[in-house]
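Thread amino acids onto this structure.
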């Protein structure tokens, strides 16, 4: 009989117990570490220590000067209720820096508009190319063009969009694919045919264009997202499609002024600066919320706003929600006159294709930034 056997068994038991104790301790510490790693602080520290093979935005923007304008407006020259001069005067005296008057197949030359061109307000050339395709209305706004283009009848909505866009680009103009949900005329596949069109209307104050969709139809914003998700870069605009300045003529569409607009990233109120920015999609769209500073660069997307009473959603392709935030007060400059600043920001984690922001006020009114693409 081996006298050492019980000792070995005892040593075996002690060893097993120690291994178990060490394993449990490791699990406990590991668990604690994993829990700690949830904290944003630790993630930031980790990022500093081990910078990711970094994702960064392709654009770099630092914008705090905006030119407010409406890109879709009608006058009595076609189906609006007021004369062109009166319409222009309304926008000039209501906080706008520019206006494109876009009557149906009727061109307005911004260089020789009614007597309004001054240092803080400009009229830019415009026309709503008004076409019919497969019995549906297909409209494209020609902005910053040099002469009238007019409309036509086409076999398919895609063919109409392709024709109008090519005509506009041939004049170095800016093409807006208008109201995709008017008569549910345009789907993302049609919009893809508007090759080179810089802008897409995703929201309108016109009561018949159904920007928000319904049970059976996607919203114009969702259609925009589908176009973006296909890899095509096109900028979103919001417009009045104003027809009813006085509202006294009930035979015109009852779309009032001042409901939705764009804020263009341009330092000066000139036709040249505004047209250049529009062509580059340098703007944000709004039907209410205001952004006072927009910053995109490296791995950060930052928005400053005037009130914390906003929901700021950061979205990726397919409408995927990356983060939803309420803006937080940031240190003020110490200047008593300065208004408080509230900030929402998003930091790339490296998985995004693009990031865009949507702001929603308590009354449901929204604003939309463009999609900023991520490079790796
Ligand atoms: Zn239209
Ligand atoms: Zn219109």
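Threaded sequence (376 positions):
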């Amino acid at each position: 009989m081996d006298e050492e056997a019980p000792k070995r068994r005892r040593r075996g038991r002690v060893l097993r117990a120690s291994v178990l104790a060490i394993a449990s301790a490791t699990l406990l510490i590991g668990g604690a570490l994993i829990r700690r790693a949830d904290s944003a602080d630790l993630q930031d520290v980790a990022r500093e220590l081990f910078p990711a093979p970094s994702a960064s935005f392709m654009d770099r923007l630092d914008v705090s000067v905006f030119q407010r304008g409406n890109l879709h407006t009608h006058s009595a020259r076609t189906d609006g209720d007021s004369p062109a001069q009166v319409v222009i005067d309304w926008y000039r005296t209501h906080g706008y820096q520019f206006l494109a008057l876009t009557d149906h197949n009727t061109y307005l030359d911004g260089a020789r508009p009614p007597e309004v061109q001054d240092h803080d307000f400009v009229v830019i050339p415009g026309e709503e190319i008004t076409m019919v395709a497969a019995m549906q209305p297909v409209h494209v706004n020609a902005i910053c063009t040099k002469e009238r283009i007019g409309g036509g009848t086409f076999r398919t909505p895609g063919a109409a969009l392709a024709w109008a866009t090519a005509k506009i680009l041939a004049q170095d103009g800016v093409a807006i694919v208008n109201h995709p949900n008017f008569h549910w005329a345009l789907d993302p596949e049609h919009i893809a045919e508007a090759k080179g069109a810089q802008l897409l209307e995703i929201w309108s104050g016109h009561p018949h264009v159904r920007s928000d969709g319904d049970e059976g139809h996607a919203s114009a914003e969702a259609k925009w997202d589908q176009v973006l998700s296909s890899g095509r870069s096109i900028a979103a605009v919001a417009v009045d499609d104003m027809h009813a300045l006085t509202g006294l003529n009930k035979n015109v569409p009852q779309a009032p002024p001042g409901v939705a607009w764009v804020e263009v990233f341009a330092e000066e109120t000139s036709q040249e600066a505004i047209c250049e920015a529009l062509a580059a999609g340098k703007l944000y769209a709004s039907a209410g919320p205001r952004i006072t500073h927009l910053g995109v660069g490296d791995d950060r997307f930052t928005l400053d706003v005037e009130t914390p009473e906003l929901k700021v959603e950061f979205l990726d392709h397919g409408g995927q929600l990356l983060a939803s935030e309420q803006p937080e007060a940031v240190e003020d400059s110490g200047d008593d006159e300065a208004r408080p600043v509230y900030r929402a920001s998003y930091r790339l984690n490296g998985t995004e294709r693009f990031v865009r922001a949507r702001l929603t006020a308590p009354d449901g009114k929204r604003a939309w930034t463009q999609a900023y693409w991520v490079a790796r």
